[in-house]
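Severity: low
Component: inverse-folding endpoint
Summary: output formatting inconsistent between runs
Steps to reproduce: submit the following structure tokens with default settings.
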């Protein structure tokens, strides 16, 4: 499965409740050293949005003008982070999470903190 095929897939929590759709994939560059002398990327987790999976521009976090953030949040609903290790199953139609509580994306430290 390609990472792009995950976009829009519905996510179910540990109890089978539909919690949203995959909007993005979070990658971390800490894998083995490649011939290009850069570390390989690995999947760290998924960004899940409550209402609709659409392209994210960073305003779903706690950055940018407050009015713009409110507009984005009203469209997306809640935005969560699902760590890769908390994923039980991935299919073309559904991602099943092992967790019953996900971390709000705003509570994750940014790459620049």
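Observed output (run 2 of 3):
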């Amino acid at each position: 499965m390609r990472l792009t095929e995950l976009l829009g897939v519905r996510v179910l929590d540990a109890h089978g409740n539909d919690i949203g759709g995959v909007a993005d994939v979070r990658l971390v560059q800490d894998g083995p050293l490649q011939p290009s002398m850069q570390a390989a990327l690995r999947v760290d987790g998924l960004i899940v949005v409550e209402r609709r999976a659409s392209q994210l521009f960073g305003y779903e976090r706690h950055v940018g003008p407050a009015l713009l953030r409110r507009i984005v949040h009203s469209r997306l609903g809640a935005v969560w982070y699902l760590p890769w290790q908390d994923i039980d199953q991935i299919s073309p139609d559904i991602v099943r999470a092992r967790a019953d509580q996900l971390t709000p994306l705003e509570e994750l430290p940014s790459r620049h903190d």
